[in-house]
Design goal:
mainly alpha, about 70% helix, disordered N terminus
C-alpha cells in the first residue's frame, strides 16, 4: 500500500481499499490503508467514507462508525442521506433503536431529508424490535412529509404486524397495499400462508393476494 502512495497511484489505492472492505471484509487492514491515504495527503472523499462506514457497521464496530460520522460532521462535510442510511441501518440491525432514532431525528436539523430507504430501514428496525405501533406512526409520517411508501415499505410492516400477532391491522394494510398497486413479496406470502394453515389469519386475505 505504501508503494501505491509513494508513486501517487491513489486510484489504485482506493480500489484496493474498496476491495478490502466490501469483498474481503478486512476492515482492520482497510482502516490502516485509510490512515495511510491521509498520511500521503490524499483526503478521502464521501464515497471512501461510505465504504469504510459500511464495513464498520457490518463488522459491528458501531462506536467507531459513529465516531467517524461525528468527525465528518465536525469537519463540515456535505453528507448525503446515503451516509446516514448506512449508520441508521447498522444501528437498527444491532437492535440499538435508541441511537437509530437519535440519528434519524437529527436529519432535518442537518438539512438532510430521509428518503424511502431511510423510512424502510427504520420501520424494519421497529418491527424487528416488536414496536409495530412506532412503525405505523412512521408510515403515517411518510405520507405527511411527501415521502410516499413503496412496496417494500408495506411488505416490511405487514410482516412486522403478522409476526407481532396483529393480523387485523395487517389485513387493512394488505388491502391498502393492493389498492395502491403493490404486491405481497415471497417472504410475506410465505408468512401469510403459514398463518392461514394455523387459522391465525382470516382466509379473506387470499382473494386480496391473488388479485395483487
Amino acid at each position: 500500500m505504501d508503494g501505491y502512495c509513494l508513486r501517487g497511484e491513489m486510484d489504485e489505492t482506493k480500489q484496493v481499499f474498496d476491495l478490502m472492505v466490501s469483498k474481503v471484509g478486512r476492515i482492520q487492514d482497510a482502516q490502516k490503508l485509510f490512515s495511510e491515504m491521509q498520511g500521503c495527503g490524499q483526503l478521502p472523499n464521501v464515497n471512501t467514507y461510505a465504504v469504510i462506514l459500511d464495513g464498520l457497521c457490518n463488522n459491528k464496530q458501531l462506536s467507531k462508525a459513529l465516531e467517524m460520522l461525528r468527525e465528518m460532521e465536525s469537519n463540515k462535510w456535505e453528507l448525503d442521506i446515503v451516509i446516514y442510511n448506512i449508520i441508521i441501518e447498522g444501528l437498527c440491525k444491532a437492535g440499538n433503536m435508541v441511537s437509530a432514532i437519535d440519528v434519524f431525528s437529527g436529519l432535518s436539523s442537518k438539512g438532510v431529508q430521509p428518503n424511502v430507504r431511510t423510512y424502510n430501514i427504520m420501520i424494519s428496525g421497529f418491527c424487528k424490535g416488536g414496536l409495530s405501533s412506532e412503525a405505523e406512526k412512521l408510515l403515517r409520517e411518510m405520507g405527511e412529509k411527501g415521502c410516499f411508501p413503496d412496496g417494500w415499505t408495506y411488505n416490511i410492516i405487514i410482516r412486522g404486524l403478522l409476526n407481532n400477532n396483529e393480523p387485523s391491522k395487517a389485513m387493512r394494510l394488505i388491502q391498502k397495499m393492493v389498492e395502491l398497486g403493490f404486491s405481497a413479496d415471497a417472504s410475506t406470502m410465505e408468512l401469510i400462508v403459514g398463518l392461514l394453515s394455523m387459522d391465525i389469519v382470516d382466509p379473506a386475505l387470499l382473494p386480496l393476494l391473488k388479485d395483487s
